[in-house]
Amino acid sequence: MESKASKLKEIIIKASAKQNLSVKEENIDVPLDDTTNMTFGVAFIKMNNEENARIGASIFDNFKLTKNNIFATCLLPEFERIM
Questions:
Q1: Which fold would CATH assign to domain 2-82?
Q2: pLDDT digit string, tens, across residues 30-39
């Protein structure tokens, strides 16, 4: 749902700000299924450099979103290596 995506973006922005890391809403992509308008359970955050990406990954790795949901993180170079 779009409202869930908006709430997720807000959580990401607030959690980042607490660690003095600026993340703009336009740099957060929460893909939605066109048919159901539901999220796929992923979010992509574009950072302005590798250092900030590593800081962001450390902030959100195992970040508890709800009692049943946690973030897992992966940087693009690591993703490419894994794939």
A1: Alpha-Beta Plaits (3.30.70)
A2: 888 889 888 8
